[in-house]
Amino acid sequence: MVWSLWRHRAGVLAHRLHVASVVDKTKGVLCDIVKDEDMPVDADGNRAELIMDGLSTIKRMNVSRCMEQYLNACSRDVTKKIQAMVKSGESKEEINNYLMPYYQIVSPRMVDLVSKKGMVTDEHLAAIVEDGIYLWQPTDNEVEPMDVIKQLNEHYAPTFGPVTYRGMGGEMKRTANKVLIGSMYIMLLEKTGRNWAGVASSKLSHFGTPAKLTSADRHSQPGRNQPIRFGESEGRLFVAMVGGRETAELFDRTNNPVVRKVIQERILREAKPTAIESIIDRKKYPSGNGRVLSLIRHFGECAGWRFKREVTHND
Amino acid sequence: MTKPVIMKARDVIALTKDQLWALPHADSLELVFDDGKIKTTVKRTIYCAYMWNVHRRYPKTPLLTRHHMGMDRISGKVHSTLLESIYRDWYDTYRGESEYNREDCWKLLYETVNEIYNDFTQRIDDHVATLSILDFMEVLDTPEIRDANQSVVPTQKSIDDTYDVISKSLNEDQSLNNNAIAQAVRSNLVDIKQVCQCVGPRGFVTEIDSTIYKQPITVGYAKGIMSLYDSMIESRSAAKALMFAKDPLAQCEYFNRKLQLVGQVVTDIAPGDCGTQHYMSWKVESSELKVMDGIHYVDNGVVKPIGPTDHHLVGQILQLRTPFGCVHPDRQTVCETCYGQLAHSIPDGTVPGHIAAISIGEKTSQLVLSTKHVDGSSKVDDIDLGELYSRYLVPGAEDNTLRLSRDLKGLPVKIVIPSDGAKSLPDIYNIINLEEVNVARLTEMSDVVFQVGREEDEGGMHEIAVPVSMGSRLGSLTSEALYYIKEHGYGVDEKGDYVVDLHSWDTSIALFELPLKHINMLDYQDSVESVILSVDKKHGLSRFEDPVDGIKYLLALISSKLTINLSHVMTIAYAVSAVDPKGADYRLPRGGEDFKFVPIGDLMVNRSMGAMMAYERQEQPFTNPETYMVKNRPRHPMDALLIG
User: What pLDDT, in 10s, does the model give residues B450-483?
Assistant: First the structure.
């Protein structure tokens, strides 16, 4: 799923590749951040903060998030209407007659919670004017979710039409389809891929072979102090795609402490360290003398065997 | 009626992008190609013209009607279908020419896909797709779907019928033309099974051990899963996803590792035709045709490729070109004719055995990982024993049963039931009502041995081990079979196994039954592993006398869940074969030589140490004296890592 984020909430700085988690078991990664004014805006001035791939709802089968978005869009517009009614001095009865049927549709038990003798309380009305509607939907809500949507669509339909946004072509566009803008409860997680990682050379064990990191290694610095590992899986892939010799070369540069040292010195002393044509002179430092191989060969020599390359009689 | 605009496809190729997009939109366009003309629209032609980059750079490539989508709907697959067809025609035209450069053509195809994405997202960015709960509401309110949902009852048939109604309405109902869900379904952008679970019943759910809950969930995600029972069994989906993401996935990856190390012994594909006269006789089943696409066969001395629509070949016995018959001088190299047309897609220098291994492995891993997303309404899988065993056992009237093949009617038939799978069989004499007993408590086995014929008959008696299980679903004798044994008795052979004479058995009655369990991907992967790598000799390829039976069995097993081309299956089978394992010759067979399929353990120890040192238990070969006697070990791409 790909999302883009529009606005930075107070105290939360979002980055690309930030992971976001949503209450209804979904999650996503922010793939791009665009300017506020380029994000979609509807006819009522509601501007999206996040764009999500609509089809991912079907692929993850989490229909409830569309429901949450729709309910919140309705609550947003009901809030606006009530704020306008209060501002224009309409009577409490009229406001009550508009608000209570809304709760009756969405969450009947909320009516008792926010009213006395059938009339909305002053405290609740003030809260709506101040901060909008927060719906209470008990898990054993007695109304059928799709009936709620149907009734809201008939009586409290939110703004739902084409939106305007800056398209990939760089121009402001009005969408051909109707797009619903509505809020969802989303948490931005701090797990990001932005921590610096990777050094040129791994830590060595006392045998001269690449060593496993200890917890002190892991936590003493803010980033990884170990290069990305090319393990056996990558080795299988490399030999199949680029050949054994090239793969052996790659492994030798890590596993041969002498070669590693020469490479490091070359990089540090070279005028253009990122443009070294041939980093190691294989006539001087032949491949195949990595520490791991040397150890195995040593065991073999002690046991009386050694590896030998023979041409198979394949004919 | 408006007269269609007529254009030549070759003229469209010459247009710049701006000219192409500026073409006046005509809903009726007649486009003339090198091989004929088609009726289409300008919008569709703009899309297809992007694919003709190959024709622009390689103008001798024929521009054919099959390089256009005609009046089809744009979907996630149209571009790949068209590009595949264009590439095939480019290949046939330029093969052998000085301009022939596969890698350049592949790059062009790759860039074309990028170009389409970039241009279309920029030029028609007002047509973004969207989705809201109102789309779900509209679908649920469609009369046919509403009626189907209201009439669903907790049976597999009812759920299947409801899914059929939903699928038909989403694809065909004109009132849903502007519905985002219907549009996504019609463009193949979503999986219809997932859509059905959203707007129809969730269906049958399995426990983490793959046992199917008897009572399905008859509502879907859009209506909401409300009852405690429904919620609790639905929670198993998440439990399975969690479970499969850990140990089973690691298990799957380890299988991939083994398959890759074994497969990599087939190191190269050589261009051209080795000209072999050694073929594999293969009777084509209708279910095999799709995966035999590109395999070559010889017809009256002429080498021809099999096409996916060559239905006339079904039922015929073809003489296939295969790696086993290839006479390329290097046993670890297969000529591209023996390999099949799939060779056209494998880059030079790439190890075909590795490609075969990952083609099988990647799909099983992905399906294990996405258990949660592909966990549709569970059905008991059909029992398919393959052609060889259908001479003995065939599916019974119930989905989970096996009965004796009618071909055996009247023949002297005995079955040998392994004693360790029938420890409680003698108890049947103490049980009065066998229908009330869980038959799996009395017998449970993966195979039985059939003894057909009599020693004294002209043809003699033959024995064959026949599977009565599917993965973890072990077969049990039915209560009817147990009554039969109770009446007619059983013998015990020298191994202590039970021998049952079936001379009076009614072949129309089910003899074995399998538990009502769903085959999950891990069971499936286990079965594939045990067959290819002959992990245990009872189930592996190595048990087949006739290698074609073995390869056919493997192909049927793989095809029961995945679509893998026979070239890959054949390559893997080739990689696990050896000329004469008993004579310590583990080279790959060549030019129709006799061979045997070999278990992975033997292959690793007796082929190049390059693979063995990357495998497991690396000390094993050094402590075994036989290791030092095996010569002529086939090389392995990993050798360079060992020798340097």
Answer: 998 887 777 788 888 888 887 667 889 999 999 9
How many CA within 13 A on the CB side of residue A112? Answer: 2
Q: Contacts from A225-229 at CB under 8 Å and sequence distance 24+?
A: A225/A199, A226/A199, A226/A202, A227/A198, A227/A199, A227/A200, A227/A201, A227/A202, A228/A197, A228/A198, A229/A202
Q: Does A151 touch chain B (CB under 8 A)?
A: no
**Cβ(B264)–Cβ(B636) below 8 Å:** yes
pLDDT in tens, B502-535: 988 888 889 998 877 666 777 788 888 888 987 6
Q: A-chain residues within 8 Å CB-CB of B198?
A: 58, 61, 63
Give the 3-state secondary structure of residue B29: strand
Cβ-contact B542, B523 below 8 angstroms: no
Q: Coil, helix or strand for B623? A: helix
- CA pair distance B641, A249, nearest whole angstrom: 8
Residue B183 has pLDDT above 90, yes or no: yes
Burial of B597 per CB tally in 10 Å (0-12, 13-18, 19+): buried
Quick check: pTM over 0.90?
no
Structure tokens at A220: 């003493």
Tokens of A254: 């890590």
Q: Say if residues B294 and B306 touch (Cβ distance below 8 Å).
A: yes
Band of pLDDT at residue B259, cut at 50, 70 and 90: very high
* Cross-chain residue pair A241–B140, CB shorter than 8 Å: no
**A71-129: per-residue pLDDT in tens?**
999 999 999 999 999 999 999 999 999 999 999 999 999 999 999 999 999 999 999 99
Question: Comparing C-alpha atoms, which of B268, B212, B276, B111 is closest to residue B515?
Answer: B212
Backbone angles phi, psi at A157, to 5 degrees: -60, 130
Q: What is the CA radius of gyration of chain B?
A: 29
Query: In this complex, which of B121, B131, B610 lies closest to A66 when CB atoms are compared?
Result: B131
Burial of B345: CB neighbours in 10 Å, binned 0-12, 13-18, 19+? middle
Residue A103, chain B, CB below 8 Å: the answer is no
**With an 8 Å Cβ cutoff, is A211 touching chain B?**
no
